[in-house]
C-alpha cells in the first residue's frame, strides 16, 4: 500500500496519481497557491511543491515583470491589499460614489467612443476606456511619449564594408 505525499494516508492503486516521484490522492494533487486540481506531468513544481503553470508558478517564481506570460490580474494574489487604501488623510471613495460618477460620465458619452467600462478584479475596480482627467490645469498636458525630446541619431557616413 502506498502513502499519499500530502496527507500521509493510504492510497489505493485505482486512485493513485504519481507525480514528482511521489504517490498522491487525486484530491491531494492540487496547486499550492490556487487549489486547482493538477494532472501528473502537466504542472510545475518548486522545492517539491506542485503549482499550476499558469498563472501561479509564473507569477510566484517567474521573472518579476508586469504582465509576464499571462494577464497578471487574473492571479488571486495580484493587487491584494493588507489594509484599505488612503487618499491623503481621508479614506478611499465609497464604491457607490464612484459608480454614480461613472454612470453620469457614460450617459454623456453614450454611443460614442468615450464610454468607460468598469469591472471588478480581486476586489478592486478596473476602469477601461479613454478617460480624460482634469486637475484644474489650464494648459495641455503632454505625456513623455507624446512630447519626447530625445535626439535622433542618424548615420553620418557610410562604412566601407557596406559599399
UniProtKB/TrEMBL annotation:
One of its GO terms (biological process) is signal transduction. InterPro entries: RASSF1-6 (IPR033614), Znf_LIM (IPR001781). One of its GO terms (molecular function) is metal ion binding. Residues 2-63 form the LIM zinc-binding domain. CDD domains: LIM_TLP_like (cd09401). Keywords: LIM domain, Metal-binding, Zinc. Pfam families: LIM (PF00412). This is LIM zinc-binding domain-containing protein.
Amino acid at each position: 500500500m502506498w502513502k499519499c505525499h500530502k496527507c500521509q494516508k493510504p492510497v489505493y492503486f485505482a486512485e493513485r496519481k504519481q507525480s514528482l516521484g511521489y504517490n498522491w490522492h487525486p484530491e491531494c494533487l492540487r496547486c499550492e497557491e490556487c487549489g486547482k486540481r493538477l494532472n501528473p506531468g502537466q504542472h510545475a513544481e518548486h522545492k517539491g511543491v506542485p503549482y499550476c503553470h499558469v498563472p501561479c508558478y509564473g507569477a510566484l517564481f517567474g521573472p518579476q515583470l508586469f504582465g509576464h506570460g499571462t494577464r497578471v490580474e487574473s492571479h488571486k494574489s495580484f493587487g491584494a491589499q493588507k489594509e484599505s487604501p488612503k487618499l491623503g488623510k481621508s479614506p478611499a471613495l465609497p464604491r457607490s460614489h464612484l459608480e454614480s460618477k461613472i454612470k453620469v460620465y457614460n450617459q454623456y458619452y453614450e454611443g460614442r467612443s468615450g464610454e468607460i467600462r468598469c469591472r471588478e478584479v480581486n476586489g478592486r475596480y478596473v476602469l477601461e476606456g479613454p478617460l480624460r482627467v482634469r486637475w484644474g490645469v489650464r494648459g495641455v498636458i503632454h505625456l513623455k511619449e507624446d512630447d519626447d525630446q530625445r535626439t535622433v541619431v542618424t548615420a553620418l557616413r557610410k562604412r566601407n564594408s557596406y559599399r
